Amino acid sequence: MKQFRGVNEEKILDFFYSPPTEFSRELEKKKLGMAMGAALYIPGLMPNFSSKLTNNNLKNLTSAIICLEDSVSDFELIDAENNIINELQLIEQNYENKIIDINNLPLLFLRIRSVQHFEKIATILGNTMRLFTGIVFPKCTSSNAKSFFLCLQEINHQYSIHLYALPILETKEIIYAESRAEELSNLYRLFKQFEDLILTIRVGATDFSSLFGLRRPANRTIYDLNLITNCLTAILNTFNRQVDNFIISGPVFEYFEPHPQTKLQLGTNSIEMTLWNEAQLDAFNGFNGKTCIHPSQIDIVNATYVVSKELYEDASLIIGNHAESNGVLRSPTRNKMNEVKPHYNWALKTLAQAEIYGVLKENVTTFDFLQCIKNI
């Protein structure tokens, strides 16, 4: 598995100074969380999703979340569960018959409804649970989080597997100003207890918006909603500190082009250009990756995290001189100062990102690369 695996080798060599490296779900936890990138939601009722995941229909997809929560109505839940069981069994059969290579399958995650629902699904799926990399916990609060984690630990032990937790922060306790600080503080203490289990923390901006009767239009980013931005900032401030080991994923962008463009036009407010702008703001503010609802969003999100050669050289210079010099260094491009001590954590993160998403050649931008792969 690697980022942009659907792009042919010739194109990769044209654009990259250092291409993305291979990874598997055995990758160190923090890097694996970064590698999730654009995580595509797959409704539990979607027919034949196993073939879409295994037949290279989604060549650049590296992570998928199969959803049994908000994407499935209550009266269709049993049908969705049966569909997932059948589709996962097909994947397992194809793997056992050596029709597919499990290492080329996107990282799979399951979004359940509750602890009781998780226990039920695990009992039904049994050893097929090993196909998943993690479990998404919806509407996670300080009241239910510990039960989720303990249940996950028990299921990991029962089936001799290692599933990660992906809690979603999306409830009124977090968005309402009067309860936010206490709730985030309580969640932080709980999450620290189970830090080794948490792959990414996800945020539900759609649920947050719903509590105020808000919905951003297709040509505006989530950052234009001040009520939501204020909350996202508090979440990042709580969980994105360098002393901790958490990765926070950006919120869903709920619009997509019915007929995706072959080129993005800078300066326009098209749906895809708005997503591109939002993804830039996600990365700039400290989010890693993003929940996606349509295949056309995958490349736009993942291209955001490719590292420029200039930033890669700055980061390498800082790390390379950390042991000998902790003062100021002139950047290789002679356009900025690099201070070893305050920029060290940024450099570590940038080099990890470069390993996963690759480093572009000089004078090539992430937007240039995106324009190319949108035509493939």
Task: List how many beta strands DSSP finds.
Answer: 12
Rg, alpha carbons: 21 Å
CATH level-3 fold name: TIM Barrel
- Name the CATH superfamily classification: Phosphoenolpyruvate-binding domains
Pick out its properties:
single chain, 376 residues, alpha/beta, TIM Barrel, eight-stranded parallel beta sheet, two-stranded antiparallel ribbon, 12 strands, 12% strand, globular
Task: Give the SSE layout.
Layout: H1 9-15, E1 16-18, H2 29-35, E2 38-43, H3 49-54, E3 63-67, H4 77-96, E4 107-111, H5 115-125, E5 132-137, H6 145-159, E6 164-169, H7 172-175, H8 177-193, E7 201-203, H9 205-210, H10 226-239, E8 248-249, H11 271-285, E9 290-292, H12 298-303, H13 309-320, E10 328-330, E11 337-339, H14 340-357, E12 359-360, H15 366-373
Explain the overall architecture.
The chain has 15 helices and twelve strands. The chain starts with 8 loop residues before the first helix and ends with a helix. Strands 8-7-6-5-4-3-2-9 form an eight-stranded parallel β-sheet. A two-stranded antiparallel sheet has the order 1-12. A two-stranded antiparallel sheet has the order 10-11. The mean pLDDT is 94. It is an alpha/beta fold. The protein has helices at residues 9-15, 29-35, 49-54, 77-96, 115-125, 145-159, 172-175, 177-193, 205-210, 226-239, 271-285, 298-303, 309-320, 340-357, 366-373; strands at residues 16-18, 38-43, 63-67, 107-111, 132-137, 164-169, 201-203, 248-249, 290-292, 328-330, 337-339, 359-360. The protein is globular. Helix 8 (177-193) packs parallel to helix 10 (226-239) and helix 13 crosses helix 14. Helix 3 links the parallel strand 2 (38-43) and strand 3. 44% of the residues lie in helices and 12% in strands. The chain has a single domain (16-305), classed as Phosphoenolpyruvate-binding domains (TIM Barrel), CATH 3.20.20.
